[in-house]
Specification:
Length: 220
């Protein structure tokens, strides 16, 4: 059964791939699962039909038959469980991949979100200039720890996995900040993720919507 995901009708980033449907698209592309996309406006996200799918009125959602999921981590995990390629076969390696997914979402991303929120919503506050370096330091601290663990490996646990998909997706939000530049192995790691054909297809699909191109067959 072809799953349907939801995405922004117009993403605030204009198609830089930062909205979280890109993570889900990437996972679906990696496993070769075709999918449909239903585009939603900000207003529609807060209306009952969408709230029935997503209690917090956000994207992405995932519908497959009578299964409805929200939360990107859960959706990517579901896809990884259903298809070969994103979770490793060995039981311990599989658990480590799941650990990296949680680490990306629970340990690394919160510092990056704090930075994004500060830059977006707090610029006009009198304490902004004083606080920003503290927030950036918290991001740098996590990046430093991750950089040490990754060292000169290509991926976090040997082979590309859902853990890498999530970690690269999280780190991508830092691209414009310049903070990754101090950690060349992380910058290369992100570039390695972006170079994957599945990522490129996912990115192109969301860009097409935000560039105002007419929807392709699978996006409605
Ligand atoms: N924990 C949830 C998950 O992982 O699925 C969070 C989902 C979420 O934050 N969804 C956002 C949303 O629907 C879109 S992705 N926001 C609308 C709302 O809450 O009303 C976050 C996002 C949005 C835009 C950019 N950007 O433009 O750069 C980046 C990331």
């Amino acid at each position: 059964m072809t799953p349907t995901i939801t995405a922004f009708e117009r993403s605030p980033d204009g198609g830089k791939g930062l909205a979280r449907d890109t993570r889900v698209r990437w996972a679906l592309e990696e496993v070769g699962q075709p999918y449909e996309v239903r585009l939603v406006s900000f207003r529609a996200m807060k209306e009952p039909a969408h709230l029935a799918l997503h209690p917090f009125g956000q994207i992405p959602t995932y519908e497959e038959g009578n299964l409805v999921l929200f939360e990107t981590g859960s959706i990517v995990f579901h896809i990884a469980q259903r298809h070969a390629g994103l979770l490793l076969d060995d039981a311990h390696a599989r658990s480590r991949v799941i650990t990296w997914m949680f680490a990306a979402l629970n340990t690394v991303e919160p510092t990056i979100l704090e930075l994004a929120t500060a830059k977006l919503l707090e610029r006009d506050k009198p304490w902004y200039a004083e606080r920003l370096p503290l927030v950036e330091d918290r991001v740098r601290s996590r990046l430093g720890q991750l950089s040490i663990r990754l060292a000169d490996a290509n991926w976090l646990d040997g082979t590309f996995s859902a853990g890498d998909l999530m970690m690269v997706s999280v780190l991508l939000r830092l691209k414009s900040s310049g903070l990754l530049d101090a950690f060349p192995n992380l910058a290369t790691y992100v570039a390695r993720g972006e170079a994957r054909p599945a990522y490129k297809r996912a990115f192109a699909a969301q860009l097409a919507i935000n560039a105002g191109e007419p929807p392709t067959g699978k996006q409605r």
